[in-house]
Batch of 4 targets.
Target 1
Amino acid sequence: MAERTKDIWNDDDGAGRAEKGSGRLRRFAVFALALAAVLGVVLAAAYRDGTGFDALRRYLNYGSSAGSGEERYRYDASPDSRFAVLGDQLVVLSGNSLRLLNRDGGETWSAQVKMAAPALCQGGGRVAAYDIGGRSLYVLDQRGEVLHLETEEDETLISATLNARGVLAVTAERPNAKGAVYAYSEDMSRVVFDMTSGERFVTEARVSDDGNTLAAVRLGQENGVFVSSVVLYDLREAGKKEPFADYSIPNGLVLAAGEQEGNLVTVSDTCVTSASYSGRVKAGYDCGGDYLRSYSLGDEFTALLLNRYQAGNVGRLVTLDAEGAELGSLEIHEEVRGLSAAGRYLAVLYTDRLVVYNESLQVYASLRGITGVSGALMRPDGSALLISSESASQFLP
């Protein structure tokens, strides 16, 4: 029988295993150093301008390559299509279909609709799709339908909003009244507020992000001039329909209402107004006689495109904080085709390029040589979707 021995001090197999182990340790050390270097750069950028964490989010979500990617979403061309970002998915609404497209280009959910004037709004991880002047409304989250509403035949929709928690508020026409406002619970299971206005037309309503207050925008006339007023209702007392406060926005037609840093912010054709939910106007920004050509009311700031004249492209781009103070201003002497604010970023689509600015209107990233792009949607992480007639691709700074 052969002799079997094992010298633990002179074992060639053991030496091989030791070499393999040390190789793994070296590879791990190299990986750890590379990861530390990447994190160091990200943290330095985050400390410098606050955008480094967004770069890390983009790296984890989409990969490391920057620039304009492949066509991620495809859909049928329609002149009345509306688009909204829902996480990493895209909502596409036209007069005959509503689709939720996932990041792989597939379809998460869809429905056939019939809308003459399709519109979208979003908030709290949800999107509401509705027909202005019609009766159909859908609320979607990233899994699909949350609510489908068909109003009464004599109660047509005017507007819909979603707050930061996805709470829905709806304004509609109502017989023998100037309008109606109703709001749903957060789980969309019931109506928690229903009010009919008999004095002034109601154009929009929104529930505060904490869920305690409903703000309704009413439109009237005083001395032949349009006057908008904001009326506030307490939602903490069930069944209460009398307002506890209101304030006026003279010489202006309110176009949109939102919330920034706990302030109720309204954009009108002449000014931006910031108020508390107690009804106290804190501050505002006067457009100074310039013509409001476009705007984007984000969760953190507001962007305005103001023209010096009714026609032409001579004007300025302005960003405002939650209290109406100017964050940045940029002279514009070319056509701007779209604005989209999200997070701390603003996407501005020019004729030949897309520029992503920060809230102070410093250039964060840009993409030139774009063709066939009709719109852009900003994401809170600093990436953007480029919208064309039949497809959408993402831009990663």
Note: The longest strand covers residues 213-222.
Target 2
Amino acid sequence: MKARLTRRLAACHAVSDALLGMAAFGLAYAIRFEAGLIAAPKGQPPFGQYLVLIPFIGLLVPLAFHLQGAYRLLRIRTRVDDFFAVLVGNIVVVVVGLLGTLYFQVYVASPADRAAGTYEVSRIVWMLYLLLGVGLTFAAREAARRVIQRRFRAGLGLKRVLIAGAGELARHVADKILQHGEFGYQVIGLVDDRAGGDTTGYRGLPLLGQVADAGEIIRRERIDQLYIALPLEEHARMIDLIETADRECIDVKVAPDLLHAITLRARLEDLDGVPIININDVPLQGLSSLVKRAIDVAVAAAALAVLLVPFAAIAALVRWTSPGPVLYRQERMGLDRRPFLVLKFRSMYDDAERETGPVWARANDPRRTPVGRILRRFSLDELPQLWNVLRGDMSLVGPRPERPFFVEQFRDRVPKYMLRHKVKSGLTGWAQVNGWRGDTSIEKRIEHDLYYIEHWSVSLDFKILWLTLVRVLFHRHAY
């Protein structure tokens, strides 16, 4: 039922997004050429020239939104998440639209078509579309969110759920269901063999009886869905519950008792008819990884071009204030534990670790050069890593790469530490924009890194890049 509800809601969002995208493009044409608010020196092109693009807009919008996770509704999505999803999705549409029309102008249009501007689309129309598309789509999603929440608060359309189990797994399932009120579930209670005369449940949910009483409880409480969340040793009980649910003709879901092993998202695969659980699946694969790589190359190349003069000035200051090379190369561990040389502007005296060996930087570190203090304070020493991004060693966003010396120390001491190497290292990351950089808790840093890997989307990457400009450049642990 949950999957059907989610698919239905995602389909409604996709249809709504497509219709609003097409409406926004048509409205953008009207504002640009019909309202008389903006001068049109080249004259007004026929609406038919823009009308042929509207169906393509309708296809592009849901596709662009899907690529960066706007329809993954099983997750907790805040209004900020929705806004960034809508913004980035519409930016993708504009970029593809500009490139598509440019292709037709250069390679398809005849000289007469070029002279008439047949395949030309006003850039002002694209800008107006972006503003209107973001505004209309976000408003529609917010309206849908409020309608659904109001319905469920009124008790309309709720599905009555019974959870079999009262241990850690059952409590985790109960937490998730209670957390996602937007799915319209009402947990009636739990059944567990430890119930006896004890009716104390979890988070106000009562223990309604023992597992053997499930059939009678399902009929009495008019249960719509049964979640089985029993430990592995209760296999026989699990089979009995499935047979009971079949007799009562209700939906039954089984939560595998693998919480201790599942850190990232688990995904069900099919091995020629045999269901297989893929533990710790990473969403950043296939087309998603290509999209992320394209963004990395475009942004890194543009940034390197823009920062060419500041780079030269920093290089001159580094060379002028202390002897040694301008750039510092240090081995780090990246994707799939592969080592690479990260580039930084040298901020410490040459051969600073000759006596101490690898150590963490600390406040008032005497190894820093005068210019290095400023570079590290504002994270300017990290900028040459844009070249690492362009080369493919790193990504713009991801877990920060660590030195192999420290990786060997942390891999056994910090649980799940090595899972951060399932994606490319980043110039910045979710942990860094939340304050976990420098000499801070490794455990909290890993927690944020794993959150990023599991919840990756293009909109999350852009959100982190924006927060990096706002927070990281002025972070108090940047030394």
Note: The first strand starts at residue 159 and ends at 164.
Target 3
Amino acid sequence: MLQSANHSTLKRLGDNFASLVVLQGINYLVPLIVFPYLVRVLGIDGFGLYSFIFYVIWLGVVFSDYGFDLSATKQIALHNENRQKLDEIFSAVLIIKLTISMLFLGVLTLLIFIVERFSENALLYYLAFGFVIGQAIFPVWFYQGIEKMRYITIFNAISKFIFTLLIFLFVKSIDDLYLVFVFNALGSIFAGLIALYIAKKQFNITLKLQSFSTLMYYLKDGWYIFTSRIAVELYTSVNIIILGFFVNNTVLGYFSIVEKIIRALGNILEPLTRATYPYLNKVYQDSKVAFYKKNMQLSMLIFIIMAPLSYIVNVYGVEILSLISGDVPDSNMVHLLYIFSFLLVIYLYGSQFTNVLVTVGESKLLNKIVIVAVIINFLIAPPIIYFTGVEGFAWLNVVIAFFISITKGYYVFIKFRSRDICQQS
């Protein structure tokens, strides 16, 4: 019986991992095709403007997500046998996400009215906002919680296929920039609607209005994850927005291109951390020793793969950028890639250690770590940009990322590991 249960667990993990590998493959393939194309047809300036608008809108996605990819996934995983509870979680999370999306739209409208950097491209922001709605209604947290990641893969593939096809058919110059946001929004909304339909038909989920107290419960449950996620975005995505107020679109384009390359390569093993998250939640309940042992093994695997990748990017930076831009890259952009290549060594530890801290009930500490980093970033970033330019700003990004990962790692593998193992003994 035990052997059969172990086989079932391995089969489920294997299926989820395979699904997320395919998903990640799609997420890599699309940027590999679309990203260089956009750089070439929009130009460096146009791509800089595109990136600035995209990251403003991405903040809306992060706000509406509210950390539910961790907190709601955990709730779904713990109550996946309770039909009434599943309906409650699903409905409450969806209501909260859509409400936050509308609040973000209100803030965005206010910024468009009072800030010139926003008002000069008002229509583009409103067109791009559809992507926030699409991501809000896409219940990725539900499919992760019930460990049916293949559905996420299918829906994401549909969205990316629509987006990619339309981009190549209709986007031919900087004048077509608005279409990039329209197509991105349409693909996202279409995939979200299909995901909701399947959740109802295949898994019998029923959407119901929820009481204020129920909504508050899930808001409180995800609060520390939410604030830590927002804090993370305040030293990653928001950094591009901050930079956009100090430099022209060309320099912003250089920074954005490099940042996208690092994000794409940095997330190469993300399927592994996503697929193991629900499983490791259950392991923690059964054996603290096994939980930390498996996380240590995961950390070693990440290092073995990512350290050589960091070296390759550092050595072949010119060739990588030439492949993306279709031309000999500017020396400033090459140097930025050299700097950011160091991030690849620790990039995935951010998500892995976050998962561990949430699992062991230390979301509040996670929040504090990231908020300290954000305060440091906000205090130092403007003078760094002013006195040292974009390169100094890039080094600041690297230093803060290492600070966060090392701090999280200390608490995960030294402090909380000792505490939990002693308690179990």
Note: The radius of gyration is 21 Å.
Target 4
Amino acid sequence: MNELKVLYEDNHIIVVEKIPNIPSQGDKTEDRDMLTMIKEYLKEKYNKPGNVYLGLVHRLDRPVGGVMVFAKTSKAASRLSEEVRNKTMKKTYLAIVNGKMQEESAQLVDYLWKDEKNNTSYVVNENKKNAKRAELDYKVLKYDEEQELSLVEVDLHTGRHHQIRVQFSSRKHAIYGDNKYHGRGAGTGICLWAYKLEFVHPTTREEMIFEDLPEPKGMWKSFRIK
């Protein structure tokens, strides 16, 4: 399983780098997914017979890569899921977006509605049925005048469907490489990366912080992401 990048592992959790364009868990495409890959890794590493338990506590969009934590026990899964619900698990992203942001840092608040049929979300009026409040904070780390692109750090406060992608795109700052939401650089891969994950360990109660930067290639390289 040399394709799996393990950032940390103990008896209760395993933290890995999700590979871009691989689903977090199995879906209707039946393509290879992270949950299955990690189960195979654990089965092989510990020579475990039968089915291996692995709890999925949060997800990343299929095209997005970065840090994810999985639970190796049901107790760990329950406690980590509670952190997600209570919003004490902190997720920070890097994104390269179109144009220059009007403000160097700001909070974006919208109401999003998911079109289940087309697997697409939209910014809508808060009174629309099934609309969900979406919040994030961002700060600009760098603006490339020549490319007319901005590197932003995003603190996600609500985990809505395609939230970061939709909120920036709705303001004419689509993420570079995001084909679904009108980003430039079609076919180059989306420049959205879950680079930092912070949570409390489910059993030791220790503060855990993991950082993992994207490979310095493509547009990431031009922004000197190391």
Note: The first helix runs from residue 34 to 45.
